[in-house]
């Protein structure tokens, strides 16, 4: 069998409800979206990266940012994120899709690479994710075959399944082969630093403040920093952890 074409698709729009325009907010001299896409593009095992955004004029700057980095863009309906992903996967000729979101500027290419490798080594599987209950929020990624994305786009009716893309798959364990989620290495979590308590995605101004500080602190001396480097910086600056501690993760409908 030919090697599958593995494509990462990220979603972004300017009209996020809690922090509009967040993906183009600046940090360390670049928009958050540029940090996200550049880091994602260094993922081992990836063949391409595509940004899925909307047809709204307000998202023209989002598309321009991605295209300026050489990242392909698919534009579709704002409300139908699942349809946008299916269109982006078709545009890129994907066989396997890695789903991420652009509100994760600190996404770790090595960790996403581990997810890809684990999925391929654990065949046959239909779905695998990074365990967001064990890792900091903001490192999230999922992988699944494009054929399931196409099936979901054709059949999903529930608004949550169209907005969040993958519930159509992981809500149906009787039909699809779901793998145990990727968890941290045993050595990754010191007793005084719970990874699951950390929040590195950007949904509210306090999240932006923390991520901005981490990028400014790490990039000058270590442009290829990973998630463990973020952990070390936060252990060196324990007060930073409190910046966004009160922010709550948005849940599915």
TrEMBL record:
GO CC, alphabetical: cytosol
Statement: the UniProt record of this protein carries the keyword Ligase: no
A family per Pfam: CTP_transf_3
GO molecular function terms attached to this record: transferase activity
Assigned keywords, A-Z: Transferase
Entry keyword Transferase: yes
Name this polypeptide is given: NTP transferase domain-containing protein
């Amino acid at each position: 069998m030919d090697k599958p074409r593995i494509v990462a698709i990220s979603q972004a729009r300017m009209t996020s409800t809690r922090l509009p325009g967040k993906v183009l907010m600046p940090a360390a001299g670049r928009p958050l979206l540029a940090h996200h896409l550049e880091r994602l593009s260094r993922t081992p095992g990836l063949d391409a990266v595509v940004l899925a955004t909307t047809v709204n004029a307000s998202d023209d700057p989002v598309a321009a940012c991605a295209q300026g980095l050489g990242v392909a863009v698919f534009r579709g309906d704002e409300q139908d994120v699942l349809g946008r992903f299916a269109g982006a996967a078709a545009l890129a000729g994907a066989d396997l899709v890695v789903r991420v979101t652009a509100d994760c500027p600190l996404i770790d290419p090595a960790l996403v690479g581990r997810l890809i490798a684990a999925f391929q080594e654990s065949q046959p599987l239909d779905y695998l994710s990074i365990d967001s209950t064990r890792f900091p929020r903001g490192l999230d990624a999922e992988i699944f075959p494009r054929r399931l994305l196409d099936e979901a786009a054709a059949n999903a009716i529930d608004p949550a399944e169209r907005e969040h893309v993958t519930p159509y798959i992981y809500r149906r364990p009787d039909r699809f082969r779901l793998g145990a989620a990727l968890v941290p290495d045993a050595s990754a979590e010191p007793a005084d630093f719970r990874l699951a308590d950390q929040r590195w995605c950007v949904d509210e101004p306090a999240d932006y403040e923390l991520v901005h500080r981490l990028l400014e602190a790490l990039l000058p001396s270590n442009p290829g920093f990973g998630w463990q480097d973020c952990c070390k910086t936060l252990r060196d600056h324990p007060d930073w952890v409190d910046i966004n501690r009160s922010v709550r993760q948005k849940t599915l409908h």
